[in-house]
Protein: DNA gyrase subunit B
Amino acid sequence: MAKKEEKTSNGNPSYSAKDIYVLEGLDPVRKRPGMYIGSTGVDGLHHLIWEVADNSIDEAMGGYAKNITVELLPGNEVAIADDGRGIPVDTHKQTKKSALETVMTTLHAGGKFGGESYKVSGGLHGVGVSVVNALSSHLKVQVCREGGLYVQEYERGIPKYKVKKIGKCETNGTKVSFVPDEQIFSKVEFDDKKVLDHLRQQAYLTKGVRVRFMDRRKTPNLLYSFLFEGGLLSFVKYLYEDGRSEKKAAQDEIFYVHKEVSDIEVESAFVYTDDMEIKETSFANNIYTPDGGMHLTGFRSALTRSLNDYARTENYLKEKEENLTGDDVREGIVAVVSVKIREPQFEGQTKARLGNPEARTAVEAVVGEALKEFLEKHPADGRKMIEKCLLAAKARKAAKAAKETVLRKGVLEGLTLPGKLADCSSKNPEESEMFIVEGDSAGGSAKQGRNRNFQAILPLRGKILNVEKARMDKMLSSQEIRSLVIALGTSIADSFDLSKLRYHKIVIMTDADVDGAHIRILLLTLFFRHFPQIISDGYLFIAQPPLYRIQKGKEVHYAYNDEEKEKVLKEFSASVSAKGKGVMIPKKEEEKAEEGEKEEGGEDGGQIKGVNIQRYKGLGEMNPDQLWETTMNPEQRIMKKVIVEDAEEADKMFDILMGDEVGPRKRFIETHALDVKNLDV
Structure:
């Protein structure tokens, strides 16, 4: 029988002390896991590994551990071990339980809130390992401490038995093995590359500590071992020599400094390359801060001030010349900044940005002093660095002039808009779409087949400039790119304004062949490098035109790949009506079919009697009605939204595919050539 709802005198439901629920122990974590690990998707799943590994890294940062091992085991199990001090097992005076059980089952319990157990740490506000326990169907912790081997197991955070001593140990350490709870996570499948990259990064940041990674799910097992004595010096070399682009250093010596000031440990390294891309990576207590923060701000300030002072002193900059800007001195740089601080203040739940003002002061002082000394000791490198910065300044001024030209043109052509853009009548960006189409032929079909109310068409002539290899001034000298920038309405570079985007669906619609794929990657490069917010806000899409038109009598179906084609043919051969993505033909095509007229351009037409197959070589071969029905009609079209889950991996891929260096691209092709099916040349 349902409980009767209590109401107040005015008829509203009651709200009193009995309506306040208190979640005890680890219940809050299972109730709202996203609050503790960000999400229950792929990132949240891997965050469990980071949290346990962070405890081992903290032991290493304190000088207590020299070896850390992470294993991926069959059955979705993860095991992480270190040779640190081992979690204490004596009775905790507040909880009256073993300190080990207290740490594993209590939020905000650990050795990082006071005292001198940890000078610095990267744990998630003391909730790390207990959160992992709460979100695991099974967890087992083993501790070697003071000669004894202790163990305790848990099911979804609840101890199965009290901490017990089961043997002896000659060394100290902790091993945690766990299985993520499938009731919590949408998919439990660990990515070995994701884990490997994270552990490699941690090994660079904790020099002198050996980090081993083993994936025992595979045969043969995947085994890696990292030990870097050079710290960030080794990290910077890896970042620009990792084989993805083979960037060449623009200086002979890599800048490196490691010093403590005001109880803040500062470590930084950088090198200039012959590239234009800026690659800055920052960490606080070994935690990656993708949005930077005060430590990165301090580095940038020291870099800009020191190089300007040097350029003035050595007469590279004349008295009346303006100073180099922050962008000038950062072009082509590969830099890493790491601070270790007692009380890090992170902004946001995901710790994306460091907020400690004292970190800026410390980094600025350490890097500024060390860079001044570096330039004095290495004048040849100083000259190369300044020359690169001066070249960047010259390009910046040229780009500014080109950008202003584009903006002025955009204002003047505000009514007619650029090039051959056929705009839509709607002025509401939320309902407006722009299709970027290759060639006048496809553009003509798209213009005739579209819904003029909300669909705009911008045809491109040929392949646009590869912006991965071009500076802003050269890029904006391209008519096609200028037209696209003006059509988008957002401007570009430091004038970019997403709120002025004229269409909330920008659709790349190219032919399903090699040339179409090349144009698509050129456009994706342009958006990734110069309009990343359009991608991150979900406004960029790729159209999926069909590859085949299959007709039997009056019935027509479109197949978007070879598998669908074979499925339709199989159903036709069995005289069964096709299902799925089939589209009935327009009336005028029915009449043509009745007359028995055969489509031109058809191939494989004799496979099944009475069935005609047309393989589309390009969008221009489709008449407007077909293009609308298959590719542009919102009710039945297929479109892929462009997303970037891992910006760093995407960055590497664009470097490989679109950069100047042939070597990495050749290796990529050789590695993946056999994966390519049905290459249409």
Q: What stands out?
A: The chain has a mean pLDDT of 83. DSSP finds 21 helices and 24 strands in the chain.
